[in-house]
Amino acid sequence: VIPKMKKWLSCLIITVLTLLPLRSAVGGWELSIPTTTAAASSSSNLRVREGSPFKMAIFADLHFGEDSWTHWGPLQDLNSVNLMSALLDSETPDFVVYLGDVVTANNIAIQNASLFWDKAISPTRDRGIPWATLFGNHDDASFVWPLDWFSSSGIPPIRCSPASDGDDGCAFGGTTRVELLLEEIKSSNALSHSVIGPKELWPSVSNYVLLVESSNLSKPPVALLYFLDSGGGSYPEVISNAQVEWFKTKSSTLNPDLSIPELIFWHIPSKAYENVAPSLWITKPCVGSINKEKVAAQEAENGMMGVLENRSSVKAIFVGHNHGLDWCCPYKDKLWLCFARHTGYGGYGNWPRGSRILEITEMPFRIKSWIRMEDGSVHSAVNLTSD
Hints:
The chain is an alpha/beta fold. The chain has helices at about 5-30, 70-90, 115-125, 175-185, 240-255, 270-275, 305-310; strands spanning about 45, 55-60, 95-100, 130-135, 210-215, 225, 260-265, 315-320, 330, 335-340, 355-360, 365-375, 380-385.
């Protein structure tokens, strides 16, 4: 073993032994963690501005942190920051949804992946725009060792957390979903609307609902936004039976008469997306611009689609995961199944980047969507509600 390797392996072994008790405690989560199973309080709700539509931007598959030990990796993150900044300045949304794979944790050679998560959030936070996040399959995946780290040319410098004390900050166990959200909420300047969901749904964490209030508080809410963790990374890519039951209970409590429009967000498409996917070209009734790969669906969604299609209040589902798809297609003439647009420079694919925009108008009620590209162009406009 070369001397550098010996020193580095010693650092790793000591770090792992040091962190095992902590990881065990974290696994049990005896800490006091802010979770919610009730409706959000009015102070945390979103609200339509009087005389203006409520606009949301979706940032999908940013994949911050890839190859951070090279020149290429940090450059990709910088390009993603510049892209998001341009999109935010063009659209000036009221709210931003980070639709999973915010980071590529299996490519991050430090314990604290929240350092990269924080960088991904920064364009939105710096503009004072509220946001919410949910998890994708890469956000808490275990670090995968690059083969060139074992080459004769030597090992690249280990980048440990700035807060670490000596070698003790070097670790590769990954950052859990709960840890990522705790760090996000703590550093959000009260702009984060993300919620650590009910413990009974863990390890599925980003399960919560946000209310969009009318500009006139005497009127009913304008919309309910449901966020679900579709798994991946530290556990299978599924929406569990427990999540389905949680959604049924939550939606029947908040919206028993189906009078409030509902929008659903998760990262990995369900198998229903395979059923409506265009075979080659995107033609009506589907709307979009790229159809460059097959749908990579969840392993199972345990009846979730059946629940959603039987709720007339559900207008659309939004997913990421497939970087080469950006279409919206109707599903059984009951709701729309939509992909976001690959936003980040991280991750696979060199298709032009952009963001799916959603706009909710109160009077008359409409939900419209389009895609804003990095170059400023707009395409794929679609009305997600019946006139």
